[in-house]
């Protein structure tokens, strides 16, 4: 039956032969003749043969049941369409019966394997049958649907092909039934046929837009009867129009929504005639422009599009309809994304209220950010970020409620509430992860700052910063996103708001907050973070330590955050703000507190008074902590990157000096502050850097402080210098006394050569001070981010002065030698490190006095403070690296005998001897490839040291021996036997566990150093060493020695495996024969 029906359809749609076009007839006449011939051939085929008998009976049955069939139609095209519609109904009803019978009869068990395909449903058509069905549907739509659409409704046939004009001319509109009735019949039959899924696919994939246009016209076109009101000219009944409306809405609800939206955009038509050449609402590109749709259709399509947009997943459907198939990148793609975003952000006129619209659309806009497909996610992200920005900018009240509040809800829940109710749900990992990713995409990737968005982020900034601090302590994929969001917010906020935010994060404005009491961030299972209940700590000391360390860690994270802002002035301005607060604290800290009569206070008032005092002390400590961490963690080129910031830094120092003068106190710290400030001013005014009028204008802030110093300071020299500096600034450099460049030269040269950290002085001309590495330190002055003018300021203090360089260097070296004997521990340690640096840099004066330095370093080894003797160890190691032949002999003598080598003879303590061993170990590490040359005398001393009566010396000798033998390579061969005997004897006989550990560790170091050369160098003793290691593993009571032996055996196992089974290399050797 199916074959017979398909054959009947193929007869109707038989193509016209080319011979029929060559008779000089028009296209319209040829079309009519071809349709008439196909109809006649169908009737003959059905009445003549038995092959189509069943199809003929079913056709007659369907014809009798169809009330719309008109047997006496005078329009040949409509007769052809009726026959096509009847055959389609026959095919649909027959396939429907087959499907019902197939579903009722249970399928027989398939004897084949489980992988076999299931039985094929009976409504599946072959490729040829589908092709025939598609041709029939095209004839039905072209002859029975499109000619009866009103002008502007749908795409006209003339715009589709040149053949469309001939089709329109062949259709007769002056005979019954009317065009609107024909349109209704065709639309109803197509909808009835499409009820079967196998037939719905070819109907809707190619003709959905025409069917929608027909239903829109039938259901919503205004009825305007003209002329007479006879029955032939009447329109559709109310019931028929209602049925068409229901069919239209049912169709729009069943079909894939992006396709529906695309077709509705086409139905809206093109732009007005004034905008010729535009595509209007058509989402495609290229082709002819669409005609303008009538007003009723434009309003209807707008209403239907609004309904599609506001339904669930409507935003996604709209975006897919416009962007599907556009690809990624390109100017057109960006423009389409921007156009879609504007559509989503604008409330349509058909919406009941703006609040209702945004409450439904905003959550769907956020959902666009959560797609995983790369191309789809990129396009949807563009639309979402742009739409969010437009909403925030144009409708901030609705964007705040329906967009930003749900976006930041997980972060708000982290900060709101208390941990007393443990049944309260915590924030899950996926919520925080999605929140951070969405905020990153909207803020950082979208990069459209607005006041509303920055204000919303400021409310959760503390929570976000706490999360960032947590990610810095753990491995988390949220770290980079949190950091970028924080930096974006700081960079785009107003400067005053950013500084206030930074002060709050440092704890200078009270409690930092960010996480509700009783909760904390914990690592998530997927590398994120989640909010969980904090375990209560019953120990008050542990709780206090946890609180203090947490505050310090937050400040460190904040400084690391500021370190990333290399091109911003915010770190410098925040540093100057803290210095101003420090000046205020310095002015208050020494004031005598007024006596408060606590006897008349109530307990509540007394508690508030004590809490206020404690809070003030806590804020002072937080301020000092923030300043200390900033000075330690940020380079001076970032803290003082502008001339105005340098001047502000000087003003803060001079202001603190003025405060001390007003109080009448004189301490070393205050004197050093004054020295630094005046020295910096003198350096800037010395003429080393060219100052502009703006620079002098910024320096006018120093005039009141210099005037106060010139009037109130006790020393006349400083008074005179302050007065001269004030005069130079006031005259913009026109008047420059000789004291200014003189002080600047002494200041810069003395600091660059001799200034140790922590040293203070009371006399400005003798030892002027500068801030620690803020102006003249050469290490940081090559930063390319510093402007040339600021570089001039920063290098002005170290411009060479040819007249005093050599004498000052000699003086600096002698002063360092004196300070290396100072009783003050910091002064001595810094002097030792300065001397070490001079040796490393090849200073001629230091190299000439190497014997003095050797004696000085050896004497300082006996100092009890680790800061001093570690500096001496470092100096001896550098000295041994510079003069190995001379220094190593002296050190070996000291280490071997335990007494001084030169006069006077005296015994060294055990601790000093071990410190010399540390020096020798560092010297061995620094030898590198020269170890075979200089290492032979060291091996003898270390081997003899293994027989010392003190176990610590034996362990030290073995440690040094391992470091040296690790670098000897093939030079170790002649000594292999002696080394093996020494190590195996110590492993078997020594009673001290630390000595056995060191001996086993020497074997591991030797094996690691020789690597693949082990079998060549230690071939004779390798079995002895192996047996010694196995003996340690089996019988040694010390667990650490056993662990070292296992590691050595693993090293040996790797070496032997590589030796026996060498790595296969896919290489080809080409040998050129002579």
TrEMBL record:
Domain TANGO6 N-terminal: residue ranges: 3-308
Transmembrane segments: none
Compositionally biased region (Polar residues): 745-776
Region (Disordered): 737-798
Domain RNA polymerase II assembly factor Rtp1 C-terminal: 813-930, 1022-1054
InterPro entries in alphabetical order: ARM-like, ARM-type_fold, HEAT_TANGO6, Rtp1_C1, Rtp1_C2, TANGO6/Rtp1, TANGO6_N
Domain TANGO6 HEAT repeat stretches: 309-568
GO biological process entries: protein secretion
Family: Belongs to the Tango6 family.
Protein name, entry field: Transport and golgi organization 6 homolog
């Amino acid at each position: 039956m199916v074959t017979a029906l398909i054959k009947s359809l193929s007869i109707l749609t038989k193509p016209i032969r080319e011979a029929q076009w060559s008779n000089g007839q028009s296209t319209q006449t040829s079309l009519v003749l071809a349709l008439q011939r196909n109809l006649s051939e169908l009737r003959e085929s059905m009445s003549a043969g038995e092959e189509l008998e069943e199809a003929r009976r079913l056709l007659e049955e369907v014809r009798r049941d169809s009330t719309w069939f008109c047997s006496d139609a005078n329009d040949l095209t409509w007769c052809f369409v009726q026959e096509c519609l009847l055959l389609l109904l026959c095919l649909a009803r027959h396939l429907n019966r087959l499907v019902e019978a197939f579903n009722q009869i249970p399928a027989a068990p398939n004897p084949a394997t489980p992988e076999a395909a299931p039985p094929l449903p009976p409504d599946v058509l072959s490729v040829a049958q589908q092709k025939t069905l598609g041709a029939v549907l095209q004839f039905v739509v072209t002859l029975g649907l499109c000619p009866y659409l009103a002008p502007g409704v749908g795409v006209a046939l003339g715009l589709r092909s040149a053949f469309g004009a001939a089709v329109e001319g062949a259709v007769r509109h002056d005979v019954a039934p009317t065009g609107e009735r024909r349109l209704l019949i065709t639309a109803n039959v197509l909808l009835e046929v499409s009820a079967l899924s196998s037939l719905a696919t070819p109907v809707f994939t190619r003709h959905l837009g025409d069917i929608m246009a027909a239903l829109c016209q039938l259901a919503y076109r205004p009825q305007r009867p003209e002329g007479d009101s006879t029955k032939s000219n009447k329109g559709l009944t109310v019931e028929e129009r209602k049925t068409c409306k229901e069919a239209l809405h049912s169709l729009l609800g069943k079909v894939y929504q992006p396709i529906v939206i695309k077709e509705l955009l086409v139905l809206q038509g093109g732009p007005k005639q004034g905008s010729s050449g535009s595509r209007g609402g058509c989402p495609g590109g290229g082709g002819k422009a669409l005609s303008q749709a009538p007003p009723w259709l434009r309003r209807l399509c707008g209403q239907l599009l609004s309904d599609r947009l506001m339904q669930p997943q409507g935003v996604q459907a709209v975006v897919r309809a416009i962007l599907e198939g556009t690809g990624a990148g390109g100017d057109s793609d960006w423009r389409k994304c921007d156009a879609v975003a504007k559509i989503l952000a604008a409330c349509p006129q058909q919406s009941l209220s703006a609040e209702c619209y945004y409450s439904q659309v905003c959550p769907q806009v956020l959902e666009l950010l959560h797609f995983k497909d790369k191309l789809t996610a990129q396009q949807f992200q563009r639309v979402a970020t742009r739409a969010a920005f437009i909403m925030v900018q144009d409708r901030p009240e609705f964007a705040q409620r329906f967009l930003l509040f749900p976006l930041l809800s997980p972060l708000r829940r982290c900060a709101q509430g208390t941990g007393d109710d443990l049944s309260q749900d915590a924030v899950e990992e996926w919520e925080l992860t999605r929140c951070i990713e969405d905020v990153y995409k909207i803020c950082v990737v979208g990069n459209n700052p607005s006041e509303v968005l920055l204000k919303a982020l400021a409310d959760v900034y503390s929570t976000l910063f706490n999360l960032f601090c947590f990610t810095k302590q753990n491995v988390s994929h949220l770290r980079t996103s949190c950091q970028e969001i924080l930096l974006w917010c700081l960079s785009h906020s107003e400067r005053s708001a950013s500084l206030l935010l930074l002060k709050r994060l440092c704890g200078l404005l009270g409690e930092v907050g960010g996480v509700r009491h009783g909760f904390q961030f914990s690592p998530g299972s997927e590398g994120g973070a989640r909010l969980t209940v904090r375990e209560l700590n019953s120990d008050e000391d542990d709780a206090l330590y946890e609180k203090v360390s947490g505050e310090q860690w937050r400040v460190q994270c904040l400084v690391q955050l500021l370190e990333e802002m290399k091109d911003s002035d915010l770190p410098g301005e925040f540093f100057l703000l803290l210095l101003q607060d420090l000046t205020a604290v310095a002015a208050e800290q020494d004031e005598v507190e007024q006596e408060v009569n606590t006897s008349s206070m109530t307990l509540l008032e007394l508690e508030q008074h004590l809490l206020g005092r404690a809070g003030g002390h806590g804020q002072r400590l937080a301020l000092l902590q923030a300043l200390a961490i900033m000075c330690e963690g940020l380079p001076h080129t970032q803290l003082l990157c502008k001339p105005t910031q340098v001047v502000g830094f000087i003003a803060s120092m001079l202001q603190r000096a003025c405060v001390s003068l007003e109080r009448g106190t004189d301490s070393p710290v205050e004197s050093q502050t004054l020295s630094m400030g005046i020295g910096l001013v003198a350096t800037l005014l010395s003429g080393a850097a060219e100052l502009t009028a703006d620079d002098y204008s910024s320096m006018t802030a120093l005039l009141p402080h210099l005037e106060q110093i010139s009037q109130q300071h006790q020393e006349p020299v400083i008074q005179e210098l302050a007065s001269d500096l004030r005069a130079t600034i006031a005259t913009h450099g026109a008047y420059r006394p000789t004291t200014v460049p003189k002080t600047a030269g002494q200041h810069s040269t003395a600091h660059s050569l001799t200034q140790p950290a922590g040293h203070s002085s009371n006399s400005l001309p003798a030892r002027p001070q500068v801030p620690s590495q803020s102006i003249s330190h050469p290490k940081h002055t090559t930063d390319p981010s510093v402007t040339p003018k600021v570089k001039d300021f920063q290098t002005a203090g170290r411009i060479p002065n040819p007249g005093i360089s050599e004498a000052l260097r000699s003086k600096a070296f002698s002063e360092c030698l004196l300070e290396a004997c100072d009783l003050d521990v910091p002064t001595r340690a810094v002097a030792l490190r300065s001397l070490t640096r001079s040796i490393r840099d090849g200073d001629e004066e230091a190299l000439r006095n190497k014997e003095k330095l050797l004696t000085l370093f050896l004497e300082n080894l006996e100092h009890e403070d680790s800061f001093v003797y570690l500096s001496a160890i470092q100096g001896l190691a550098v000295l041994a690296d510079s003069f190995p032949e001379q220094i190593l002999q002296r050190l070996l003598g000291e280490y071997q005998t335990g007494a001084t080598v030169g006069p006077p003879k005296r015994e060294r303590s055990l601790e000093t001897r071990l410190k010399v061993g540390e020096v020798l170990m560092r010297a061995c590490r620094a030898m590198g490839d020269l170890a075979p040359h200089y290492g032979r005398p060291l091996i003898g001393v270390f081997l003899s040291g293994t027989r010392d009566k003190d176990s610590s010396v034996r362990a030290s000798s073995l440690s040094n021996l391992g470091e040296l033998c690790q670098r000897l390579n093939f030079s170790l061969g002649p000594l292999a036997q002696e080394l093996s005997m020494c190590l195996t004897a110590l492993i078997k006989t020594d009673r001290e566990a630390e000595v056995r550990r060191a001996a086993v560790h020497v074997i591991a170091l030797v094996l690691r150093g020789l690597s693949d050369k082990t079998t060549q160098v230690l071939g004779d003793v390798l079995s002895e060493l192996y047996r010694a290691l196995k003996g340690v593993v089996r019988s040694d009571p010390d667990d650490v020695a056993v662990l070292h032996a296992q590691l050595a055996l693993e090293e040996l196992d790797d070496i032997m495996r590589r030796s026996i089974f060498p790595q296969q290399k896919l290489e080809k050797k080409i040998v050129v024969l002579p």
